[in-house]
Amino acid sequence: MIKALIFDLDNTIFATTTISDEIFGPIYELMEQYRINLSDEIIESIKSELVRMPFQKIADKYHFPAQLKSNGIELLKQTVYNKPVKPYKDYELARSTSVTKFLVTAGFTKLQQSKVDALGVRSDFKEVIVVDQEVTDETKRDVFARLMQKYGYEKDELIAVGDDPESEIGMARDLGIKTYLYDPESRFKSEGVTWHEQHYDKLVALLRS
């Protein structure tokens, strides 16, 4: 019996692309100051990856100058989003279920918390936990393990729901937790996940079975 769901936030509850230009606009402007290091092609790649990958990883991947990385981090640490944001339409199916839900998201604390409030979903979750690389060495895997211990869940009583096979999905698999890869755009192959779906109707059906 499934007793709890552990949700990711970005591209799992809402499409990050709907607000990415507003959030990352200052980062785009900052990168323009480093044109000698970043070509047009690289900047476009970075813009597309910012909606799915932590800024720090992108900075390392593209070998940002130390000052660019540092300034970018300082910008994003203070960034918040205060406009209303719409969740995916089918998320309404998932939120309507009575099963206990947790939200575990990685990113900058102020920004991630502001997204939760902009979406109006905070009350959906027993706990909202932000894994912020700037303030903790903890990973999502560590948080999953801590929640299991804190609430006495067995691994087969949980489903981790997310869009990233290498992040929350992979870390849940490491712990033996069932995984629901939410992939509305069919971006990934079904490798090693428990369920791979484009919609939340399957998740709701699982909880009712």
Would you kindly provide a written description of the structure presented here, covering whatever features stand out?
The protein has 209 residues and is an alpha/beta fold. The chain is 41% helix and 14% strand. It has helices spanning 20-32, 40-49, 55-61, 66-77, 91-95, 109-119, 140-151, 168-174, 201-208; strands at residues 4-7, 100-106, 127-131, 158-162, 178-182, 195-197. It has a six-stranded parallel sheet with strand order 3-2-1-4-5-6, with helices on both faces. Strand 4 (158-162), helix 8 and strand 5 (178-182) form a beta-alpha-beta unit. Helix 1 packs antiparallel against helix 4 (66-77) and helix 3 (55-61) runs antiparallel to helix 4. The protein is elongated, with a radius of gyration of 17 Å. It starts with a strand and ends with a helix.
Structure summary:
This protein has nine helices and six strands. It is α/β, with parallel strands linked by helices. It has a six-stranded parallel β-sheet, with helices on both faces.
Global mean pLDDT: 95
* Main beta-sheet annotation: 6 strands, parallel
Low-confidence stretches are none
Across the major sheet, the strand order is: 3-2-1-4-5-6
**Helix percentage:** 40-55%
Rounded to an integer in angstroms, the radius of gyration calculated over CA atoms is: 17 Å
How would you describe the shape? elongated
- Give the helix tally: 9
Strand content: 5-15%
> Which class best fits the helix and strand makeup?
alpha/beta
Count of individual beta strands: 6
